Amino acid sequence: MDFTALRKQFPVYAYEDIVYLDTAASSLTPQAVIDGMNEYYTRFPVNVHRGVYRLSYQATEAYTAARETVAKFIKASFEEIIFTRGASSALNLVAFSYGLSVLKPGDEIILSALEHHSNLLPWQAVAKQTGAVLKFVPLDPSGRITAEAFASTLSKKTRIVALTYVSNVMGYITPLKPIIALAHEQGAVVVVDAAQAAPHHAINVKELDCDFLAFSGHKMCGPTGIGVLYGKAHLLKAMPPIEYGGDMNDHVTLHDAVYKDPPYRFETGTPPIAEALGLASAIRFLQDIGLDAIAEHARHLREKALAGIEAISGITVYNPTTETGIITFNLDDVHPHDAVTYFDADGIALRAGHHCAQTVMQWLQVDATLRASFYLYNTDDDVKRFLDTLRRARTFFTEAGF
Ligand code: C6P
Q: How far is CA 287 from CA 224, 284, 292, in A?
């Protein structure tokens, strides 16, 4: 695959001379995805599931086909795919629907310090409401979740395990298969935050045997405003909705209502129709390239960047053994917001801050870090420009007394 040629499919590069290394926050959008959304707005820009006329049927068919594409992408069934606003709202849906209905005082929820706030705060809130107890898998010295450490945290009281598949700060891949098998032996349900995994790895929910899995469109070349919650059919079927309104019910009287079966029970109101079409286009786009090839390309760029960084003194890398395209680092004694401003002046977009994962910062014992994340549109030249700027930044801040 010629990844440099692929860049032409991302219109932003025609306008901006940018080295974009912030994909872990949001990926760039290819023309195919813009076309996918435009098809809705140009051909059948009307509501779904309601209109008894040709255009509405067309919109409904396209929206239904988009859900089928997502289901096939992760090897799920149609009714197991719920469209949400993003990974955050997908994780909130599991916590406030499944979590609130099953948790009793003293039940345990296992999380880790690697969780993004979107897979920590909903569980904190649900634990407070139910009297459940949060437990955290101790991380190994490099900051990883291991199956052994998970086994030592698991108990007969564990009802829910909610873990990240790939950490948005460390880039580590969680060994989910043995963890899920262990959790199931104790009768616990496993929720996977796949926001950073879905853009890079082929996911097979049947093989993984997870009970719930969440991801967002905008980190995998798709649009903002759409995400996915996968849930095993029998679990979803028993869950109450957390939002109520139009299109999620079969029959309504003054004092009661009968709700539709999943997925519609969890999708009240007008759904993100153009965004669903855009997400389906993104999936086709990624599959045409091949997820393995994308992951390999990101790994190649990360290794090259890492070798370059390690040759510069005065820089700390927090995840030198990461297996994905994320490098988290700091220029020693330089605040990451100062450093990121220097990079921006050179047209290089990095992320600086706590990355909505403050417990990772606490584990690393830093306030904030820089993060470079590589994806399919990045090139060897991007790595070179990044390293050139890094060298100059290090000299600049050293000479300025940092
Ligand atoms: N992480 C980052 O820069 P939303 O915003 O709902 O699409 O995704 C939330 C989310 C959940 N889990 C993980 C592992 C994530 O990385 C994210 C989003 C971005 O790292 C924005 S904070």
A: 20, 5, 9
- Closest residue by CA, ligand 1 atom 3: 25
Cβ of residue 351 lying under 6 Å from some atom of ligand 1: yes
For the stretch 236-250, pLDDT in tens is 999 999 999 999 999
The ligand 1 atom nearest the CA atom of 118: 11
Whole-structure pTM value: 0.98
Please give the angle made by the CA atoms of 18, 20 and 25, to the nearest 5 degrees: 145
Q: Which one is catalytic: 32, 121, 202, 356?
A: 356
Distance CA 314, CA 21 (A): 21
Give the domains, in start order, of the chain with CATH numbers.
32-287 (3.40.640.10), 291-399 (3.90.1150.10)
Q: Is 118 in the pocket of ligand 1 (CB under 6 A)?
A: yes
In degrees and rounded to multiples of 5, residue 212 shows phi and psi of -135, 150
| 351 CA closest ligand 1 atom index | 3
Tell me how far apart the alpha carbons of residues 103 and 96 are, in angstroms, rounded to a whole number.
Answer: 10
Atom of ligand 1 nearest to the CA of 356: 22
Residue 391 CB partners (closer than 8 Å, separation 6+): 312
**3-state secondary structure at position 107:** coil
From CA 260, how far away is CA 82, in angstroms rounded? 13
Here the tokens at position 224 are 């903002």
Distance 116 CA to ligand 1 centre (A): 7
Is residue 221 part of the annotated active site? The answer reads: no
112 lines ligand 1 (CB under 6 A): no
Please write the tens of the pLDDT for every residue from 210-236: 999 999 999 999 999 999 999 999 999
- The CA angle 94-96-101, to the nearest 5 degrees, is 95
